[in-house]
């Protein structure tokens, strides 16, 4: 009989041979998912023998991971800003960099009583749900072009008890139809910003599994920044602020878009790797 420790050791070797990064953590997280426990709890049950059905399921999940299916789609969940989010291939897997975007909004509005926020390209709802959780009087409109993504986002809002303050709407921000709502204090967006050329060179793990419409605008990576900066005047209040996540090489161009659309006090925040990651502009 294979014990928990034997299985982790064998699977780590197998994942390593197949070229999976961080094989030990992957092996542990997949087993923890099967045993419905936290990864660290595995350490307390190293001698526990695995049941036959657990071994069969573990093999299946390891095989999927070896095909470079992202771990988060296999387990169906991800942690973002300390909250749990369900993810499926309909939504982008929330990235740690995006926590900086959310943190920046929270730091700016923590003292304000009421904030009205528009989240453009909500995906799994990670930004909206986290903001609703940490800014308890915020009212949020979250839009996405993908109906399938909105289904997951609504589930995540329910799961994190924030659904009463988030309205999820299907809306194409690149189209000419205006949103019915306006007078927002904040627009926040992590739009698809990978250029068509960079998209071709992305790892298969992203290209084969994550939604293409969440990653790239099929152009120069700036389409959403152009559309959002030019439409923002219709949606933001005076003194309203726009918060963007930006790609590693877009800083100058996005800054120019903001200033040519009358945004003032433009600021850039770097991430922990010292890369320009968040851009803020004020509509004065
Ligand atoms: C980079 S993902 C961001 C997802 C999530 N907000 C996050 O930070 O992880 C971009 C999102 O924009 C959505 N999207 C793509 N084209 C759109 C459009 N024309 N109008 C509105 N949303 C769009 C995608 O479906 C996707 O959910």
Quick summary:
This protein is α/β, with parallel strands linked by helices and 284 residues long.
Structure description:
By secondary structure, this protein is an alpha/beta fold. The chain has two domains: 4-67; 81-283, Vaccinia Virus protein VP39 (Rossmann fold, 3-Layer(aba) Sandwich). The chain has twelve helices and nine strands. The protein has helices spanning 4-17, 23-35, 52-66, 71-75, 96-109, 126-134, 147-159, 196-200, 204-207, 212-215, 223-235, 251-260; strands at residues 77-80, 83-86, 115-120, 138-144, 166-170, 184-189, 236-245, 263-270, 276-283. The strands form two sheets. The protein has a seven-stranded mixed sheet, sandwiched between helices. A two-stranded antiparallel sheet has the order 1-2. Helix 2 (23-35) packs across helix 3. The longest helix has 15 residues, at 52-66. The protein is elongated, with a radius of gyration of 21 Å. The mean pLDDT is 97. Bound molecules: S-adenosylmethionine. Residues 92, 94, 98, 121-123, 126-127, 143-146, 149, 172-174, 190-192, 213-214 line the site of S-adenosylmethionine (SAM). S-adenosylmethionine (SAM) binds at residues 92, 94, 98, 121-123, 126-127, 143-146, 149, 172-174, 190-192, 213-214.
């Amino acid at each position: 009989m294979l014990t928990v420790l034997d299985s982790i050791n064998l699977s780590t070797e197998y994942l390593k041979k197949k070229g999976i990064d961080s094989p030990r953590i992957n092996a542990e997280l997949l087993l923890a998912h099967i045993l419905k426990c936290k990864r660290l709890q595995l350490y307390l049950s190293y001698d526990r023998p695995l049941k036959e059905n657990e071994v069969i399921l573990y093999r299946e999940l390891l095989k999927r991971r070896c095909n470079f299916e992202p771990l988060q789609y296999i387990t169906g969940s991800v942690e973002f800003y300390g909250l749990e989010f369900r993810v499926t291939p309909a939504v982008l897997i929330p990235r740690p960099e995006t926590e900086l975007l959310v943190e920046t909004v929270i730091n700016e509005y923590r003292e304000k009583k009421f904030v009205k926020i528009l989240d453009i390209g909500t995906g799994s709802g990670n930004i909206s749900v986290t903001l609703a959780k940490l800014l308890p009087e915020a009212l949020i409109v979250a839009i996405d072009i993908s109906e399938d993504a909105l289904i997951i986002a609504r589930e995540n809002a329910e799961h994190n008890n924030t659904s009463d303050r988030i309205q999820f709407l299907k809306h194409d921000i690149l189209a000419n139809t205006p949103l019915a709502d306006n007078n927002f204090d904040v627009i926040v967006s992590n739009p698809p910003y990978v250029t068509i050329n960079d998209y071709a060179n992305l790892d298969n793990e992203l290209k084969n599994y994550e939604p293409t419409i969440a990653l790239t605008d099929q152009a120069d990576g700036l389409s959403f920044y152009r559309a959002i900066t030019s439409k923002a005047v219709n949606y933001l209040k005076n003194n309203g602020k726009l918060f963007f996540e930006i790609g590693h090489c877009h800083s100058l161009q996005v800054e120019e878009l903001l200033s040519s659309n009358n945004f003032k006090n433009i600021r850039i925040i770097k991430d922990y790797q010292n890369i320009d990651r968040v851009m803020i502009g004020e509509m004065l």
